[in-house]
């Protein structure tokens, strides 16, 4: 026997599997909040577009980010629904602050690690094209920070969906 065998200590897999599942659950909860908010924006655009006379100017774009922009235009100061949407501009722009995270969650390749305390850390990498050039973005967070991020998204998503729901109810009633 002329070769030297390397000895590697195998760590238990259970903590790593639990960390990966917890990070995936966090990702899923965040994505669900984004999906529900995007649906509320889309529903609101449909209701605005159905309003006689004023609804004809409403654009119904395919991409989610463009739908947020279309809604902001419709309810903004110069928009056809400025009066109805005056209280929704703040929640809409507040929720849009999470757009970069949405991209990371939706398109990122995740790596989950554990620290010495057993807390998970997550790194997401996104490879995209911007202006025809390669763009590599990285998002990193750890378990406690991720919980705070989720709480902020939950708060902003709830506020946005509630405000848009009120607009839809008022317009459907009129």
H and E string: HHHHHEEEH
How many distinct folded domains? 1
Note poorly predicted spans: none
Q: Helicity range of the residues?
A: 55-70%
Question: What is the overall number of helices?
Answer: 6
Q: Give, in spatial order, the strands making up the sheet with the most strands.
A: 1-2-3
The percentage of residues in β strands lies in 15-25%
* Class by SSE composition: alpha+beta
Report the radius of gyration as a whole number of Å: 22 Å
Shape: elongated
Number of strands: 3
Rounded mean pLDDT is 94
The separation of the N and C termini measures: 88 Å
The major sheet is characterized as: 3 strands, antiparallel
Quick tags:
3-stranded antiparallel sheet, 174 residues, alpha+beta
Task: Please specify the SSE layout and strand pairing.
Blueprint: H1 14-49, H2 64-75, H3 82-85, H4 89-96, H5 99-107, E1 109-114, E2 120-130, E3 133-142, H6 143-173
Antiparallel strand pairs: 1-2, 2-3
Helix pairs in contact: 1-2, 1-6, 4-6
């Amino acid at each position: 026997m002329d070769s030297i065998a390397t000895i590697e200590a195998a760590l238990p897999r259970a903590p790593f599997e639990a960390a990966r599942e917890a990070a995936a659950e966090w990702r899923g909860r965040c994505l669900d909040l984004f999906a529900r908010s995007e649906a509320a924006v889309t529903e609101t655009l449909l209701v605005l577009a159905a309003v006689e006379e004023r609804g004809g100017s409403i654009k119904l774009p395919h991409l989610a980010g463009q739908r947020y922009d279309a809604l902001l235009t419709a309810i903004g100061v110069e928009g056809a629904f400025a009066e109805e949407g005056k209280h929704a501009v703040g929640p809409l722009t507040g929720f849009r602050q999470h757009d970069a995270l949405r991209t990371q969650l939706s398109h990122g390749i995740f790596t989950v690690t554990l620290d010495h305390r057993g807390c998970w850390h997550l790194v997401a990498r996104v490879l995209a094209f911007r202006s025809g050039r390669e763009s590599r973005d990285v998002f990193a967070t750890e378990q406690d920070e991720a919980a705070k991020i989720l709480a902020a998204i939950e708060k902003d998503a709830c506020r946005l969906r509630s405000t848009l729901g009120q607009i839809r109810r008022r317009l459907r009633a009129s």
